[in-house]
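RECORD TYPE: inverse folding
INPUT: structure tokens
STRUCTURE:
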């Protein structure tokens, strides 16, 4: 799956310089994610790199994978400083597990950051999947909520899983 996070949460296009590229695929090792995102130099979490509670409050890219039943889903959050968070849900905003293990590395190069992650397939809902990806950055009034698939609504809400389209997670060659 290749996607570009190129919209605000409510459907306005973003400038190319603000867009994030994401690749996702499944193989025998699990789900792989590759992120290429602009780096906005937001403050990093005070927590050491690794599993980080409430990572969504910082500069982050998030991937949501919803299972075939439409209720079970996994949220993977990746930050530019090596922080990550994996949550599993049974129903909208009904977490059943958090801070799940993930192999993750990130690096900042100039004005961009790249991240590579692998998540064991045991942490994923049963496919086929529906998916969305989003990015959050900025602080205070400058906070921006971006999405590959705009979700609309009165406030940013990336857990509107019923609006996610089908995702094809190809196998790596």
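DESIGNED SEQUENCE:
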């Amino acid at each position: 799956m290749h996607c570009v996070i190129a919209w605000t949460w409510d459907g306005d296009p973003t400038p190319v310089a603000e867009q994030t590229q994401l690749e996702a695929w499944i193989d025998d090792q699990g789900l792989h994610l590759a992120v290429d995102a602009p780096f906005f130099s937001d403050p990093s979490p005070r927590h050491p790199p690794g599993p980080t509670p409430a990572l969504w409050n910082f500069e982050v890219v998030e991937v949501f994978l919803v299972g075939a039943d439409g209720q079970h889903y996994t949220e993977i959050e990746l930050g530019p400083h090596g922080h990550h968070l994996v949550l599993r849900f049974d129903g909208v905003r009904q977490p059943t597990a958090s801070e799940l293990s993930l192999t993750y590395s990130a690096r900042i190069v100039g004005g961009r950051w790249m991240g590579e992650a692998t998540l064991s397939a045991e942490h994923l809902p049963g496919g086929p999947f529906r998916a969305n990806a989003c990015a959050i950055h900025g602080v205070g009034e400058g906070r921006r909520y971006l999405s590959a698939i705009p979700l609309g609504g009165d406030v940013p809400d990336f857990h509107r899983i019923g609006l996610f389209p089908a995702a094809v997670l190809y196998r790596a060659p």
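NOTES: The two ends are 13 Å apart (CA to CA).
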